[in-house]
From TrEMBL:
One of its GO terms (cellular component) is cytoplasm. Gene3D superfamilies: 3.40.630.30. GO terms for molecular function: protein N-terminal-serine acetyltransferase activity; protein-N-terminal-alanine acetyltransferase activity. SUPFAM superfamilies: Acyl-CoA N-acyltransferases (Nat). Pfam families: Acetyltransf_3. Coiled coil: none annotated. Residues 15-177 form the N-acetyltransferase domain. Keywords: Transferase. This is GCN5 family acetyltransferase. It comes from Streptomyces katrae. It comes from the Bacteria.
Length: 184
């Protein structure tokens, strides 16, 4: 299986339909923590819905769109990163992440996002990467800052999550900014 080492015991790999049982077990372990800000836990509640979520994303990846990648630490799926949106024709993509508590605090999301951003800019020729994050999600905002994203603004109460309207912060990173940061 294809994977990229993020640390001695951590790998990034494409998350596919055949990972449904492992994905569901991961979501079950982190359901409340992950679900504070993102919808995966509400969409993957049993094996069939986990398969469907992964299948839907696989179809989007096959159409050169959205893509999911898992992060394993010590052989266990603990989180992941994704292209929530990927528009090669426009040169724009959106990067995102999720993590269960057992995977936090090691910088794995930041390292994995660097891999995705490198690929988007260097291989696919993207011009702009975005990071959309709920206003109260301080851990995700910290990742955006570490990666060099610039906060562009807030979409006030634009996202309904579990019955509550959330502000969504929009952050961006341009290809030339990424290239300059890597050479600095």
């Amino acid at each position: 299986m294809f994977s990229i080492d993020l640390a001695d015991d951590a790998q990034l790999f494409p998350l596919e339909v055949w990972h449904a049982e492992e994905f569901l077990a991961h979501i079950d372990r982190g359901r409340e923590f992950i679900g504070q800000f993102i919808g995966f836990p509400d969409r993957a509640t049993d094996l069939e819905s986990a398969r469907q979520l992964l299948r839907s994303n696989a179809e989007k990846a096959a159409a050169d769109g959205r893509r999911l990648y898992g992060i394993r630490a010590g052989g266990t799926l603990v989180g992941g990163v994704l292209f929530a949106d990927f528009d090669a024709a426009a040169g724009n993509c959106e990067v995102g992440c999720w993590m269960e508590p057992a995977g936090t605090g090691r910088g794995l999301v930041t390292k994995a996002c660097r891999v995705l951003i490198d690929w988007a800019f260097d291989v696919r020729g993207m011009h702009r990467a975005e990071w959309h994050v709920a206003g109260g999600n301080e851990k995700s905002i910290a990742v955006a800052r570490r990666l060099g994203f610039t906060r562009e603004g807030v979409l006030r109460q634009s996202h309904l999550h579990r019955g509550v309207r959330q502000d969504i912060e929009v952050w961006s990173l341009l290809a030339d900014e990424w290239a300059a940061a890597r050479t600095a």
